Amino acid sequence: xxxxxxxxxxxxxxxWKNFDNSPSIKLKRVLPLARILLSIGIITTDQLRxxxxxxDSNIEWANAAKRIPVPTGSADVVYASHMLEHLTWGxxxxxxxESKRVLCAGGTIRLAVPNIRFHxxxxxxxxxxxxxxxxxxxxxxxxxxxxxxxxKLMVGDRGHKWMYDGPSLCRLLERQGFVDAVIxxxxxxxxxxxxxxxxxxxxxxxxxxxxxKL
Length: 214
Known about the structure:
Number of helices: 8
Structural class: alpha/beta
Strand content: 15-25%
Radius of gyration: 18 Å
Number of strands: 7
Helix content: 25-40%
């Protein structure tokens, strides 16, 4: 059985199948082009760094909201960290349907997302609305320059589109047919052998939830 890390970014898991839908995955095949895009200001230094990182990592491209490129019932674990909040409501439903498709019976889905409660509590402590909006990723800054605007037009809006807490994430999974949804603390899992999976990804902002496929 495969173990799948979706939207892995710069945190692929050794021994797992790692997927991401960043354009950087495709740019790794044409690294000189990526350097040209940096020189004319279309991509940032951090984006070039990710392209170079992808060259040395076993990350494959996939849009998991449309299709996870593995056979039906071939995975015992699907993991996604800080990916769900980038999807529209319809894309979330499609992603969870795809996750169910690729999971075997009794397989586990593990999700880590930014915890809206964390940002609310920070706001109530400091009462800084600008910090709150930036922290949730729901705000939008102006894109300066034609080239950057064109790049955003090509890759789409990669900001946050929804926010969750533990209970809302459990309800979402149960509505999509998963069972035994549970909120877990950092470092906790129901997986008997998590291997090198990062169980504390983006602590303390994250909330972790796992559920099973019937």
